[in-house]
From TrEMBL:
Organism from which the protein derives: Parasedimentitalea psychrophila
InterPro entries according to UniProt: NnrS
NAD keyword on record: no
Superkingdom of the source species: Bacteria
Keyword Transmembrane: yes
Membrane-spanning parts: 20-39, 59-76, 88-108, 114-131, 143-163, 175-193, 214-232, 238-255, 267-288, 294-314, 326-345, 357-379
Keywords assigned by UniProt, alphabetized: Membrane, Transmembrane, Transmembrane helix
Protein name in the entry: NnrS family protein
Length: 389
């Protein structure tokens, strides 16, 4: 068997998490400020979407897709034992993602159809690569991730079709939210109890997280049913009841992971806190509080979980100690505060615009702080691999 050739290209392109987490952090640091300027009429975009649809689309198919790509392209080599996607293919995918963002914003002047093909082409490429790697590695256990990614691609296509036919999205935006939330319940249900168990065994002997069993599968099924009913008929009583039921089950699921025993490690506690926003969002939708539910999902669950995962994965894969510095912990708390302000205070504030700007600023500062701290790590070799001077 021929030995594997060691990678000698740019460090940034040596592993999937490096360019895509960097792109996600950078995009998150500017996109919400852009949205606020657009919302106030001080900035105009000439892309294919109305302002609200641009905001929703780019948070889901821009920011979230970059984090999902970075996570999968880093996890799959561990699942399959195959070499990671790196070098020029990774550079091409990164440029394709960037081109999609520029086209959707109208900075690259393309027709509606060309923008759609470019933007959806990115997720198509990701789906093909993930499918190829899992099949080539015969890693059938993780083939289940193909389904949500495929539905996510379909949601993006439907987003464009709805805008073309109706002028705005409706079902597609809910479907995209549902897919990302379901992915968090699926992947979070594996990594959170696993990381928690590993830390507790070493640092805090005692009760451990419950192992994956039928109850977890029932929780996933309940989430899938509740979210799909919400996509199809959000105001239907059965949909709301299903979401409330799913919320109760996911609270019970979270409690089984022993988050109360990891208070001493903020890096782990972040994951438990972010996951708690999933049943909270489901409950709010079940109660008919749609706008609050969307921002609890978007900022608290998606923003919080992706930020926590990016921090932990970056530390682990760049040879850093798995410990949160004060600025990273503070950034996460700012993001959680942004979720509370946007979902709870805007509607009751005497100055809603000030509340909106407060939430937007908290989000922006949170991601900017993380970008400043860990952004340079993506372009540098791991400390253990640096040659002595």
């Amino acid at each position: 068997m021929m030995p594997r050739k060691e990678y000698t290209g740019p460090t940034l392109l040596s592993y999937g998490f490096r360019p895509f987490f960097l792109l996600a952090l950078g995009f998150a640091s500017i996109s919400i400020l852009m949205w606020m300027l657009i919302y106030q009429g001080e900035l105009t975009l000439s892309g294919p979407f109305q302002p609200l649809d641009w905001h929703i689309h780019e948070m889901l198919f821009g920011y979230s897709s970059a984090v999902i790509t970075g996570f999968l392209f880093t996890a799959i080599p561990n699942w399959t034992g195959r070499m990671p996607v790196r070098g020029w293919p990774l550079a091409a995918l990164s440029l394709l993602w960037i081109a999609g963002r520029l086209a959707v914003a109208g900075i690259i002047p393309l027709s509606f159809t060309a923008t759609m093909l470019l933007d959806c082409g990115y997720l198509t490429a990701i789906l093909v690569i993930v499918l190829r790697e899992i099949i080539a590695g015969k890693n059938w256990r993780n083939l289940m991730v193909i389904g949500p990614i495929g539905v996510f691609l379909v949601a993006n296509i439907l987003f464009y079709i709805e805008v073309l036919q109706n002028g705005e999205s409706d079902y597609a935006r809910r479907l995209a939210f549902a897919v990302v939330i379901f992915l968090i319940t699926l992947i979070g249900g594996r990594i959170i109890p696993s990381f928690t168990r590993n830390w507790l065994v070493k640092n805090n002997p005692g009760p451990l997280p419950a192992a994956m069993n039928r109850f977890d599968k029932l929780c996933l099924l309940a989430a899938a049913i509740g979210l799909l009913l919400w996509v199809a008929a959000p105001d239907w009583g059965i949909s709301q009841g299903a979401l409330i039921g799913a919320a109760i089950m996911h609270v019970a699921r979270l409690l089984r992971w022993r988050g109360d025993r990891v208070r001493a490690t903020m890096l782990l506690l972040m994951l438990h806190i972010a996951y708690a926003f999933i049943p909270l969002g489901m409950l709010l939708f079940g109660l008919g509080l749609t706008v609050s539910g969307l921002h609890i999902f978007g900022i608290g669950a998606i923003g919080g979980m992706t930020l926590a995962v990016m921090m932990r994965a970056t530390m682990g894969h760049t040879g850093r100690v798995l410990a949160t510095s004060w600025d990273l912990a503070f950034a996460f708390l700012l993001l959680m505060l942004a979720a509370v302000v946007r979902s709870a205070l805007v509607d009751i504030s005497t100055d809603p615009m000030m509340a909106l700007w407060t939430a937007a600023t908290l989000w922006t500062v949170a991601f900017a702080m993380v970008l400043i701290r860990i952004g340079p790590w993506y372009c540098r070799q791991n400390p253990a691999r640096r040659k002595p001077s």
